Amino acid sequence: MSSNSNNAPAPTNTDSRRPTLLGRIMATQSLQEIQAFNVPIPLYGDEVRRKIISTKALYEEFALGAEIAPWPMTEQTLSWFITYCGISIQYSINTITDVLIPCVKRIWMENNHQENVSVEISNALNAALRQVKRSPKMNPGTQGKQPAILSDLEIIIRAIPLGIPTRTEELSLFLTALNTGARSITCEHVLVRDILSLIPNESDPSQHYVRINFTRMKGVVQGNHYITLEGSLTTEAPMDAVYWIERHLQHSFGLSLINRATRASECSYQKTLALEKV
Prior knowledge:
Elements: H1 21-27, H2 31-35, H3 46-66, H4 75-88, H5 93-112, H6 119-134, H7 140-143, H8 150-159, H9 167-180, H10 184-187, E1 195-200, E2 208-214, E3 225-231, H11 241-253, H12 264-267
Antiparallel strand pairs: 1-2, 2-3
Helix pairs in contact: 3-5, 3-8, 4-5, 4-6, 5-6, 9-11
């Protein structure tokens, strides 16, 4: 007599596992909803991308002045660029190590379709940095960070693409700081209500004076330091702080320096010159 085990039903291929959370959620979505997540992810954030653009413009201008071909980037051209910026232009060590060198590495990797910078390029940049640090002109203990050079800032401003949403905000910030010497801690605390008045220039109707109250300075939490900027409200100029403040108010707040009182009560406590608004 055969045993009962021989009469057992044959196993089936049916998968009896419970569906996962992912499977349950995907079952409720259309293919179009699922494919919406299949989008390219940018390699860098907006801030890093802006630094890369400005560094690339600076490098191309250097190559033009030095009468050398900027592309392809080589150990010699990059070493020359870093050394020149550090010793002749006297960029601070912080600017070189935190901005210039990382940006030229990223540019080299993008141009050469590489995930890492080559050993030769890395060694050349490190050697250039050591040479800058040894230069008698560089004294980190006393110099610290160097102020922006007017011509450099103009290059950076012209290099910011027109399609960047924060372009008017950045230009108003950069140019106010440049024209007043204000630190970042001062500019980032300027509110809409701190823009006090707009005064026409009697001798030149196309120009206006804008009076702003700086309430936050280094070592001063609550203060009143009044500054005045002069410029045009309507004539575009890359280095006109007043023009770009007017454009920024229109773009971000729906206000104007002329009639800012219309909605000033709604926006008075929002930051004006900071790169991010509350």
